[in-house]
Amino acid sequence: MKNNLSVLLAFFYFSFAATPSKAIWIYTPDFFTENGKSYMLQNCPIEAIFDSIPELRPKADEYWLQTNKNYQATLSVQNSKLVLNSITVRRYGNDSVIVPSNALSEVFRSKGPIVLDWFSGQLIIEMDDHTSRTDMKYKVLEVVKGQVTGSRVLNHHALNRLRRRVYKANAHKMQFLDLDDLKGEMYYAGKLRWRRHIPSKSYQIWDYASLNDFDLIKKAVKSI
């Protein structure tokens, strides 16, 4: 057991020592701003861009754990349209200190805000910050080609019912990273009564269910 632990510690030491220019930071989601307040999203609406065109993924000096998502997007609604205001990455400044940097202009042709006219789907916004998720309220925005066509507020149980419906309609698109992810998806499909925690990929149900017009994405982003 001691030998196994020593090998594991050595692996982490040399892995981090081999990349001294990179720092480690815990994963955080994208955000939605409304009336001067910021709320966490359960979606990653622009991740489809970087999945389809990896060369556009902004460079960062700080990588987040358990994901290749190295940025934080901030969205809002302006004139009934869903817009992207910033893509924040963390990079070393001139004094070798990690600072936030907006990479929006590195990805898109225009300076912003960017209308997500390629995006159709549901945007899930966590409206409260309670310790217990059962107390939380969620705003669900219905979006069609960037136009916000509807809005409703759901409690935790209503959101899970919606999640199960969305899962059943889109399960054929999903890929699972490991057993925990599969267990999480089965829970939301109503096939398991409980699970110990929400797996990292369970939130991606919403992203799998979204529709993205890749012709419009190519028009909006910079040429590679």
Describe this structure in words.
The strands form three sheets. Strands 2, 3, 5, 6, 7 and 8 form a six-stranded mixed β-sheet that branches. The protein has helices spanning 2-17, 47-52, 104-107, 156-170, 179-188, 205-209, 214-220, and strands spanning 23-25, 31-34, 37-40, 62-64, 72-78, 81-92, 98-102, 114-115, 119-126, 137-144, 147-155, 211-212. It has one domain (19-220). The chain starts with a helix and ends with a helix. It is built from seven helices and twelve strands. It is α+β, with helices and mostly antiparallel strands.
Number of helical stretches of at least 4 residues = 7
Strand content: 25-35%
Please count the beta strands (DSSP E, at least 2 residues each). Answer: 12
Distance between the termini: 49 Å
Query: What structural class is derived from the secondary structure elements?
Result: alpha+beta
Low-pLDDT segments, ≥5 res = 5-21, 192-202
> Main β-sheet: number of strands, strand sense, barrel status?
6 strands, mixed
Q: How many separate structural domains? A: 1
| Percent of residues in helices | 25-40%
What's the rounded overall pLDDT mean?
78
SSE string, helices as H and strands as E: HEEEHEEEEHEEEEHHHEH
Q: What Rg is obtained from the alpha carbons, in whole angstroms?
A: 19 Å
Gross morphology is globular
Briefly, what is this?
With 224 residues, the protein is an alpha+beta fold.
Architecture blueprint of SSEs:
Blueprint: H1 2-17, E1 23-25, E2 31-34, E3 37-40, H2 47-52, E4 62-64, E5 72-78, E6 81-92, E7 98-102, H3 104-107, E8 114-115, E9 119-126, E10 137-144, E11 147-155, H4 156-170, H5 179-188, H6 205-209, E12 211-212, H7 214-220
Parallel strand pairs: 1-4, 2-5
Antiparallel strand pairs: 2-3, 5-6, 6-7, 6-8, 9-10, 9-12, 10-11
